[in-house]
Fold this sequence. Notes:
By secondary structure, the chain is α+β, with helices and mostly antiparallel strands. It is built from 16 helices and 16 strands.
Amino acid sequence: MIEIIENTFRILARVTNSKTAMLLSINNFETSVISFVGENPDKFNEFKKALLHLHKRSSIDVRNVQTFPEYKTIARELSVKSCFIQNVYSIIEQNEAFYIVLFYDAENNHLLPTDESFMAILNILSNQIKQYYSNKYKKSSPLPVADDNFDSDSIIENWENNFTRLLSISDDLIFILDKDGCFLKINDSGVHLLDYKEKEILGKHFIEFIPPERNAEVAGAIVKMLQSNDEVKFKTELRTKVNRNIPIEIRGKAITKNGSVIGMLGIGKDVTQLSRTEKEIKKLQPKLVEANRLISVERARTWQQGSLIEELERLKSEFVSNISHEFRTPLASIIGFSETIVSDPNLPEDMKSEFNHVILNEGKRLAKLINDVLEISVMDEGKITLNKSIIDIVEVVKETVEKNYVSSMKKKITFEFEHPNVEVFVDADREKLGSAFDALINNAIKFTNEDGRVKVIVNNLFKDVEVLISDTGIGIPEKDLPYIFQKFYRVSRPGTEIPGTGIGLVFVKQIVDLHKGLISIQSEIGNGTSFVVKLLKSIKANK
Ligand code: ADP
């Protein structure tokens, strides 16, 4: 029928030469488009809203509509010159009205509303709408509501019927058992759940629908229900006709008359989904524990990393203050002694020469310091490279020992060097390896008090060569040993001012590592320290 209406409407749009035409239905809530020709009705949304307002307040006429700002916007945007709107049918009870709205691109349409053919088509359309919509409303008209005189007691009188209806629409299994536990009644959902027909259930004992392995617990629950006046709640499974077990939660209560139990009332909830979820949760539990453990490990690691970064930051700033101090001390003596020489032309020659000597030594110390700092930045960039050749390690160590002889003498340290009487060849960077041994021997002397002993031993082993630098100095606390090769790490020794920057050992370790050697340390506080450097001998030159 609606197609017929649409057809008639299209004919009307064509004969009126409309650019756009709409057949609208307007009720109290909305304006809906039944049919349209031309522009997409979505473009008229604001216009439709305006019509709805007008419809609610009064009837709609074309003059009113043409003054709408919404119409003016459409006219501008869609190049519409004039419009026509007319009610074709109304359903007073529903406050619903049907309108045709025609838009022309001329000032006026050649077919005026008075035109016979126009009127004829409009009539047909009106009749078609009337026929269609009055039928439609008739079909969906609500049930008649009883008037106010209706006796509401009838609802109560009819309670059994009403309750039976209520039970049939409930999703839960609702049942009544007699005092022996046999079904007297079961609602539609229960019958449906168990897959039986109602007559196959009624009269049967409740236990017959329980899987055998759960009979005992259900029998116990029924006895409990019979013995007390309280509600009993239990979980079990019901077995359907096709032997499917359905997990169910049952709440039941005894029905009594004159103090004696005459039956039981129960309501059961299908908890298939719930128990599935519970099982899933149970399965996920270990994963959750695992995830929590991982999170706490990760947290601890982050914390550790954080504290490591903090530690490095602390060491770095300590290094900056140490290095400034290290720079300042030699600089102060250089400047001081030079100033004295410059300002006093009568300075005795021997004193002048002594001062010059100090200036030279302090200058060298400064140069070494600067070299160390540069070395560290080269190491940081991973740019350190070896200039290797086959060298006699005994000779390299010997040179370093000799270099440090004077400073050991100054501290009255017994300085011994033990070595094999043969050449021991290694493939190494002579200069860098020499600097590494120098740093170790330097430390040994630096951290050994007067009258102590420093011993350097070269051990010619089977495949390796071992260089041991041992002292009877102040030693390193056990807790500091793991960090001793870390950049800027210095053992804190309150009260003793031993200069240093904490980069010497970092450099030593890097050099040994680059030679694929091993460095180890043994130390005991107050008793001394031993460093052992192990390197692979060069087979080639040993032949
Ligand atoms: P520094 O420039 O401070 O000497 P190093 O990297 O050479 O830096 O040494 C790091 C720390 O290791 C020093 O601060 C020192 O406390 C300790 N150390 C190194 N060698 C010895 C040693 N032979 N005896 C005692 N302590 C040592």
